[in-house]
């Protein structure tokens, strides 16, 4: 189960990096040796708007939580090529989400999954034969109001497919569904957690 302690550790790692300090030790609030595939997501609150994505990268190979969270806290914050690297002055507006991925199942076809329950990972072939992959975490399709078909189309686009998407193309996709245990923490709550630890 993902917890706010996982998110707080990601904040620890990012803050230490941006301030040029040694990376914080792994806290005692979670089992750092437990292994999961995981994603770390950073979002930013803009005035009058909902959260906007600032970075999201993860790994489908199970990793020890201590190492995985430390690696992907920074990778998603600084090396998501869709965005500029997160800066120190953005911290007060940030939230961090940690998703631990579970229950991977190969779907019977591209519609064999449930919106809001499953994340989807697709593998497909480009016209030149090159294999491409793309994924959306379980919350994405529901947040965007997408149908299953629309979600698969968006995954194809995310994976670099630029041509007309036909039914035959959708049916050629290999789709794996999975579930996620997610926790989210605002920066203001992170600061409160750290203050309580210092006072204890």
Task: Name its key features.
200 residues, single chain, alpha+beta, 6 helices, six-stranded antiparallel sheet, elongated, 2 domains, Glycoprotein, Type 4 Pilin, AMMECR1_N, Dna Ligase, domain 1
Question: What do you see in this structure?
Answer:
InterPro entries: AMMECR1 (IPR023473), AMMECR1_dom_sf (IPR036071), AMMECR1_domain (IPR002733), AMMECR1_N (IPR027485). It holds the Pfam family AMMECR1. Residues 1-194 form the AMMECR1 domain. This is AMME syndrome candidate gene 1 protein. There is one protein chain. The protein has 200 residues and is of the alpha+beta class. The chain folds into two domains: 4-102 and 181-199, Glycoprotein, Type 4 Pilin, CATH 3.30.700.20; 103-178, 2-Layer Sandwich (Dna Ligase, domain 1). The protein is built from six helices and six strands. It has helices at residues 4-18, 65-78, 138-144, 148-158, 167-172, 187-199, and strands spanning 35-45, 51-64, 94-106, 119-125, 131-136, 174-186. It has a six-stranded antiparallel β-sheet. Strand 1 (35-45) and strand 2 form a beta hairpin. Helix 1 packs across helix 2. The radius of gyration is 18 Å and the shape is elongated. The protein starts with a helix and ends with a helix.
Give the helix level as a range of percent: 25-40%
Q: Give the overall form.
A: elongated
Unreliable stretches: none
What distance separates the N and C termini? Answer: 25 Å
What is the strand content? Answer: 25-35%
Mean pLDDT: 93
> Architecture of the largest domain in CATH?
2-Layer Sandwich
- The CATH superfamily of the largest domain is Hypothetical protein ph0010, domain 1
Look at the structure and give the CATH class of the largest domain: Alpha Beta
Query: How many H/I helices?
Result: 6
Radius of gyration: 18 Å
Q: How many domains? A: 2
Q: Reading side by side through the largest sheet, how are the strands ordered?
A: 2-1-3-6-4-5
């Amino acid at each position: 189960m993902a917890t706010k302690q996982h998110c707080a550790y990601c904040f620890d790692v990012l803050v230490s990096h941006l301030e040029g300090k040694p990376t914080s030790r792994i806290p005692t609030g979670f089992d750092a040796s437990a292994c999961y595939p995981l994603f770390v997501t950073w979002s930013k609150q803009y005035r009058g708007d909902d959260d906007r994505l600032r970075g999201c990268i993860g790994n489908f190979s199970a990793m020890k939580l201590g190492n995985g969270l430390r690696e992907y806290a920074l990778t998603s914050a600084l090396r998501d090529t869709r965005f500029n690297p997160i800066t120190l002055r953005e911290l007060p507006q940030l939230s961090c989400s940690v998703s631990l991925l579970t229950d991977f199942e190969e779907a019977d076809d591209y519609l064999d999954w449930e919106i809001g329950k499953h994340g989807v990972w697709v593998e497909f072939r480009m016209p030149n034969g090159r294999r491409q992959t793309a994924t959306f975490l379980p919350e994405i399709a529901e947040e965007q109001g997408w149908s299953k078909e629309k979600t698969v189309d968006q995954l194809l686009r995310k994976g670099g497919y630029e041509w007309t998407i036909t039914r035959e193309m959708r049916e050629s996709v290999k789709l794996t569904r999975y579930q996620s245990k997610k926790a989210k923490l605002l920066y203001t709550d992170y600061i409160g957690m750290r203050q309580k630890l210092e006072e204890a």
